[in-house]
Specification:
Blueprint (H helix, E strand, L loop, with lengths): L10 E5 L4 H12 L3 E6 L2 H13 L5 E4 L5 H14 L5 E4 L14 H29 L2 E6 L12 H21 L4 E8 L21 H9 L12 H8 L10 E4 L13
Parallel strand pairs: 1-2, 1-4, 2-3, 4-5, 5-6, 6-7
Helix pairs in contact: 1-7, 3-4, 4-5
The structure holds NADP nicotinamide-adenine-dinucleotide phosphate and D-gluconic acid.
D-gluconic acid (GCO) binds next to loops.
Length: 265
């Protein structure tokens, strides 16, 4: 059973993994035996990420690459194949959010979110699939969201992207399953990372941010998730244990999607 979750000999590219969810997933992959490759937009963040991995005893390979730039992504994949090895596992983790009421959001802002959160996973998956086919298979994991299923005020672009990412996940699974490529999604709930820090900021009087209290009431686990809560589900979807799981979005949300929410006192 242990071997089913073993990633020894596998090369994993986790995009945008200097910190946050991507870092936690990469750390778990390393602990399962994988070789870690990650990218970030700025050398400064790549360097910080390398230091963080080293502090965990992980010799990661870090590269500067903007995932929205197709030429840069293709060059990254070619460099990784030459310097590290063929990519067996791709985690499309890099992502941004802009919280702006839709009627105030510019088309350029909308496009920017779609570019990173939806176009980039397409670009990265397209770049790794040919070598996965040649190698006899691979794993693609797209980091979806509660917003792959639900909407809320101010996140129109993000929800459109993450909803699209759920269907891109299903389509990659459909088109490449016959090549032993499994493409699945992970849908994190509300996770404590820099991306959600504004939603958890303490108020001037020291009380919880209203959104923080709201999420606690909407989550059966009555807590925010930690990036480490995604480690096991990610290793499962990256390992042989999930070889017949394809086109699935595994929600790791503490039960949010199952729950109407706690009645206000
Ligand atoms: P985060 O803390 O904001 O980190 C996002 C990472 O993506 C950063 O390393 C960032 O690099 C990188 N990135 C952004 N744009 C990029 C680009 N064009 N090219 C390369 N790297 C880029 O986010 P997170 O909370 O860890 O979230 C990671 C993923 O999980 C995202 O896809 C997010 O939508 C999703 N997610 C998050 C939550 C949550 O509650 N936190 C829940 C569900 C889904 P820089 O530092 O250089 O900007
Ligand atoms: C927001 C949050 C969410 C989380 C996550 C939930 O503003 O609602 O940022 O979108 O990031 O996607 O799954």
């Amino acid at each position: 059973m242990e071997n089913m979750f073993n990633l020894k000999g596998k090369v994993a590219l986790i995009t945008g993994a200097s910190y946050g969810i991507g870092f936690a997933i990469a750390k778990a992959f390393a602990q399962a035996g994988a070789t870690i490759v990650f990218n970030d937009i700025k050398q400064e963040f790549v360097d910080k990420g390398l230091a963080s991995y080293e502090a965990e005893g992980i010799k990661a390979h870090g590269y500067v690459c903007d995932v929205t730039d197709e030429d840069a992504v293709n060059a990254l994949v070619a460099t990784v194949e030459k310097e590290v090895g063929v990519i067996d596992i791709l985690v499309n983790n890099a992502g941004i959010i802009k919280r702006i009421p839709m009627h105030e959001m510019t088309a350029a802002e909308f496009r920017q979110v779609i570019d990173v959160d939806l176009n980039a996973p397409f670009i990265c998956a397209k770049a790794v699939i040919p070598s996965m086919i040649k190698k006899g298979g691979g794993k693609i994991i797209n980091i979806c969201s509660m917003m792959s299923e639900l909407g809320r005020e101010t996140v129109s672009a993000y929800a459109a992207a993450k909803g699209g990412l759920k269907m891109l996940t299903r389509n990659i699974a459909s088109e490449y399953g016959e090549y032993n490529i499994q493409c699945n999604g992970i849908g994190p709930g509300y996770i404590a990372t820099p991306q959600t820090a504004p939603l958890r900021e303490r108020q001037a009087d020291g009380s919880r941010h209203p959104f923080d209290s709201f999420i606690i009431a909407k989550t059966p686990a009555a807590r925010w998730g930690n990036p480490e809560d995604l480690a096991g589900p990610a290793v499962f979807l990256a390992s042989e244990a999930s070889n017949f799981v394809n086109g699935h979005v595994l929600y790791v949300d503490g039960g949010i999607l199952a729950y109407i929410g706690k009645q206000p006192k």
